[in-house]
Give the backbone structure.
Amino acid sequence: MKNLRKEFPILAQNTYLNTASSGLLYDSLLDFRQEHDLDFLISGSIFRDPQATFLSNVRKTIATFFKNSEGDTILTPNFSLGFNTILNGLEKSKKVLLLDEDYPSINFAVANKGFKICYAKVNATLEQNIENAIKKHKPDIFAFSLVQYINGIAIDHEFLAFLKNKYPDILIIADATQFCGTKVFNFDTSGIDIMGCSGYKWLLGGYGNGFMLFKNNILDNITPSDYKNAASNTDYDSSYTSLQARFECGHLDTFNFGSLQYSLNFLTKIGLPNIETHIHELCDYAKSELANLQLLEEDVIKRSKHSSIFNLKGDHRLFNQLQKDHIITSLRGSGIRISLHFFNTIEDLDKLFNTLHRYR
């Protein structure tokens, strides 16, 4: 992995522990983006004419990467737009289970549309809390982040499969923006009905791209009948009236979605199993050392599995000192959030620990 660090110029002068905020642009992706716009510059509409074929190839790349069918893979500029499109088509009488303090793009999006809402608490017993809430409130929909953006607590994927098997009528919708690109994942065999992701974090796709994955028949089930009736009674081209068109309305940017496709191929060449193993090693080391320093909340320490995100006990003073030492992090919640990707190293973590020992 160390040989790949030269792809990321920012790492020459900084210890970047902030992928949860923004993934990095890297040299070979920059080359692709410059070539893309140069082709557009000299060809204009001739360059744009085959965009339908190009975008179809992007869908195919995403579907292959996450083990889904191409027809049930939809392009969207970001998770939030895709998620709100889903919510706008659902009956407001539905009851939605949310996780307390989950990302506002989920919780506020549901709350401001008038759905009935119930909550499960995010702590060391997250999975049990979810099942208890389902038994008590009997929700129609469960919408959540696979990884909590503040403290990195991650829901167990085997639990989701169990949940779907036990409660098959609940529509399970997951935001995977803080997850995709960190582990090998098979959407087809998961317990998730709909999974969305923005591509600018661990997928390193840059901004303005994302996708929604649907299990077989789910897209049809969540499409309003008024839309389907109107589509069946018009002669408009299917690019305006298909089930996918409700999400992919208007022009899609080949620059942004081409960047996502390029990065998915980049990650594939590195190997998701290799990335997963490396991140796991970093996270094990980080969790052990941070726990020894008493910088992690008890709920995180108690869980046997964790994500690539940690929230350290710390204030603005410590955050500013980290910045002075060229260690890039984020202030989130009541602490300082760090996040790890394949380009990070044990040496990066040791630099962080040295600063923490000196200034905490």
Remarks:
- The longest strand covers residues 95-99.
- Residues 272-292 form the longest helix (21 residues).
- The chain has a mean pLDDT of 96.
